[in-house]
Structures are given as C-alpha cells and as structure tokens.
Amino acid sequence: MGDDNEYSIQIRVGPLSGDDLDVSVNNGVLSVSGRTESRDEREEDGYSIFSCSCSSFNYRRVLPSDVDGGNLESSVEDGVLSISAPRRLLPAPKPEED
Fold first, then answer.
1. Cα–Cα distance list, 29 to 45, 46, 68 (Å)
2. Cβ-count burial of 44 within 10 angstroms (0-12 exposed, 13-18 middle, 19+ buried)?
3. Would you say the C-alpha torsion 68, 28, 9, 90 has a positive or negative sign?
4. Model pTM?
5. Exposure of 42 by Cβ count < 10 A (0-12 exposed, 13-18 middle, 19+ buried)?
6. SS3 62
7. Contact, 32 vs 21, CB < 8 A?
8. pLDDT digits (tens, 9 = 90+) for 25-58
C-alpha cells in the first residue's frame, strides 16, 4: 500500500472512465463513486427496440491519519483506478513527564 512517502490504492472500476468517477476525501474518509449509462435504439423486423443499462458503485475507506487528503492524484488505466496519497509529517509525540 505505498511506500514511506505515499499510500497507494488500486480499485477495479471496469468500463468506467475518469469522467465517470468522483474521488474525494472528507474528514479522513476516501470516497469513490461512479456511474455509467448506455442506451441502444434500433429497428429490427419493423419494431423499434430500445434498451438502457446503468451501473454505479460507491467505495469508502478510512485513511490513516498521516494522509495528506488535499493532494490526492488519481488515474484510470485498463479498468483500474489508481490513487496515490502523499504522507504528511505528523508532530512527534511529546515525551511523558514523570
């Protein structure tokens, strides 16, 4: 899931393109949603045939606290959405006082 500098997430999205997807982070939760529609209308043996199909999905994942959610990068290739999220430096914990 990435390296020391970033997290990496891959999600299979099938035939959806980047234009069909919405990727966002809100309160430390990564949300990916997608929707696509296809329509077909044709004449066959004197009849009009019309068909429509749609598909949609939602994906949510709580991100680690060191993810910089404001700087996500995403791309779609061969039906896979790849998201990279840089890690940010967290303040070092304060030493316990006796």
1. 52, 53, 12
2. exposed
3. positive
4. 0.69
5. exposed
6. strand
7. yes
8. 998 899 999 888 888 999 988 899 989 888 888 9
> Which distant-in-sequence residues (6+ apart) come within 8 Å of 66 by Cβ?
87, 88, 89, 90
pLDDT tens column, 57-84: 899 999 888 888 888 899 999 889 999 9
Task: Please give the torsion angle defined by the CA atoms of residues 1, 35, 74 and 68, in that order, rounded to the nearest 10 degrees.
Answer: -70
Please count the other Cβ atoms lying within 10 Å of the Cβ belonging to residue 74: 15
Task: At 84, list the tokens.
Answer: 């990279």
Please name the amino acid found at residue 21: L
